[in-house]
Specification:
This protein has four domains: about 80 residues, PrpR receptor domain-like (Rossmann fold, 3-Layer(aba) Sandwich); about 80 residues, Dna Ligase, domain 1 (2-Layer Sandwich); about 170 residues, D-amino Acid Aminotransferase, Chain A, domain 1, CATH 3.30.470; about 70 residues. Helices cover about 40% and strands about 15% of the residues. The protein is built from 21 helices and 15 strands. The chain has a five-stranded antiparallel sheet. It is globular. β12 and β13 form a beta hairpin. It binds adenosine-5'-diphosphate and magnesium ion. Magnesium ion binds next to β13.
């Protein structure tokens, strides 16, 4: 093993704060860190350059903190201007914090199960969809500062209700999901891809919202292994140091992700664990990896929340077969789909892992900030004969991804052997031009899911044609 890092060799940590935003971490979560921990506060409005200067002046190597949705795009810019500063969680990991649309696009990319979701920036497409789809549907506000607690989640039972709601709320984009009847949902919190806390939330009698903020019940017992496995998969896909997922348990027995993010409510002792994990990560082993046994929440959850809110620095000893083993072996087994498992065996299936340090952007805003980049231009694409983004649009959209005319898309589609005019029209009925380009670029299997006759061989050919076509642009 390499020599342990001296104080001088440790990276300089800074905590990222924003005015008016609750602080997830403070220095006490990093107890024992030998060097000064800096703080930098973003003051909103025109504060970008000053903020960047302050980070540089304080020689911060690692900037830790959650970025709220409304500051997300600014911080993507800030991160680019600070290439030597590592943001934790990375801006890519925080992509899902920005909007429900982003959660959906993240899930599409990684083939994470979610309720079937439909997103429209074009009002006519949304209206068309309402005309053809089945009800009930869920309509959600994708993005907004107070987007929490089910206040912007609506169940609509008919075309008329859907149209009235969108006319009144003017949600942009229009975000629909199939209504999934649920037993409950489970919030899982993970650190280094290891579940450290999980609890059930059940809807009040006769209600469909499982949010506890709406008066539902919660408890910590017997969260299924397979549900934890899904949460781990999602955390890994996000490369998240810390993470929370809401997993819906459908009446059909299936698990689906409803929400996931790095920003969530957590007891202070959980934030201490995150601090310990990060100190381990950044010290190359000088600080120990915290040992947090699986299902600790079943035991801690027996305490009153008012007590849990005051507990700090909870540590667990390591499992030793001679003593703890006897206890575990005698007493604790868990039911899983593969049969019964001892608790300590199961614990070893969920190691706490280091996240990857990456030097590329997975979700660059030029491509993924649909709200600002495409929101307005998409509508124009349909009404204009010349779809090129005009000079009076923002500079942001200048950099945006490829936007094509319907004619060009038609030409592309019919260039695939076996796809004629009729079939092409059918595809264009389901996807508008921008959606199709994005499907091709990021989640081509979406086309197969959406269109039953669209078989794998079409997809393979279409992707090939698309590559050729792109090269000629
Ligand atoms: N597709 C869906 N089908 C059925 N119920 C849903 C669906 N999506 C959300 N819900 C219910 O609405 C609640 C709030 O939705 P969610 O997407 O978590 O938004 P938020 O918590 O930000 O308001 C969920 O906890 C769940 O009970
Ligand atoms: Mg929720």
């Amino acid at each position: 093993m390499a020599k342990k890092k001296s104080n001088e060799e440790l990276p300089k940590i800074g905590l990222l704060y924003l005015d008016y935003v609750l602080r997830f971490f403070d220095k006490s979560n990093f107890r024992g860190w030998p060097n000064k921990i800096e703080t930098v506060t973003y003051h909103w409005k025109n504060d970008k350059n000053r903020f960047i200067k302050e980070v540089k002046r304080k020689k911060i190597d690692i900037l830790i903190g959650n970025i709220p949705a409304t500051a997300y795009e600014t911080f993507r810019e800030i991160a680019r201007e600070l290439p030597n500063v590592q943001f934790i969680p990375s801006l890519d990991t925080q992509f899902s914090n920005k909007s429900k649309e982003n959660v959906t696009r993240f899930a599409w990319k990684y083939e994470i199960p979610i309720p079937k979701t439909y997103i429209f920036y074009d009002k006519n497409k949304a209206d068309n969809f309402i005309g053809k789809t089945k009800f009930p549907k869920i309509v959600k506000k994708s993005y907004g500062p107070s987007n929490y607690g089910g206040y912007f989640v609506h169940k609509v039972d008919s075309k008329q209700e859907a149209r009235n709601l969108l006319a009144q709320k003017k949600y942009h984009p229009a975000y629909f999901q199939d209504f999934v009847p649920m037993e409950a949902d489970v919030r899982v919190m993970l650190i280094g891809h290891k579940p450290v806390c999980a609890f059930w939330r059940r809807a009040p009698e006769g209600e469909w919202l499982t949010n506890t903020s709406q008066g539902g019940e919660m408890d910590y017992m017997n969260v299924p292994k397979e549900l934890l496995d899904l949460a781990v998969q999602v955390s890994k896909a996000a490369n998240a140091e810390y993470w929370a997922c809401d997993v819906a348990v459908g009446k059909d027995g299936k698990y689906r992700i409803l929400e996931c993010a790095t920003a969530f409510a957590a007891f202070p002792y959980i934030r201490d664990w995150i601090g310990q994990y990060l100190m381990w990560k950044f010290s190359d082993g000088r600080f120990p990896k915290p040992n947090i046994p699986l299902f600790n929440w079943e035991e801690l959850g027996k305490m009153d929340p008012s007590v849990l809110r005051t507990l700090r620095y909870i540590t667990f000893g390591n499992y030793t077969p001679s003593y703890d083993g006897a206890y575990f072996l005698d007493k604790k087994v868990k039911e899983t789909e593969e049969g019964e498992m001892y608790l300590h065996e199961m614990d070893s299936l969920y190691p706490m892992l280091l996240t990857e340090d990456r030097n590329y952007e997975e979700w660059p805003s030029e491509k993924w900030n649909f709200q600002d980049n495409y929101g307005r231009s998409i509508r124009k694409v349909h009404s204009q004969s010349n779809p090129k983004i005009s000079a009076d649009e923002s500079e942001e959209s200048e950099k945006s991804a490829i936007v094509l005319t319907e004619k060009k898309i038609q030409k592309l589609l019919t260039s695939v052997e076996g796809i004629g005019k009729k079939k092409a029209e059918h595809i264009m009925d389901k996807f508008d031009t921008t959606e199709l380009v994005h499907a091709l670029e990021t989640a081509p299997h979406k086309i197969m899911e959406e269109i039953s006759w669209f078989k794998k061989k079409f997809l393979t050919k279409l992707i090939k044609e698309w590559e050729t076509f792109k090269n000629k642009l």
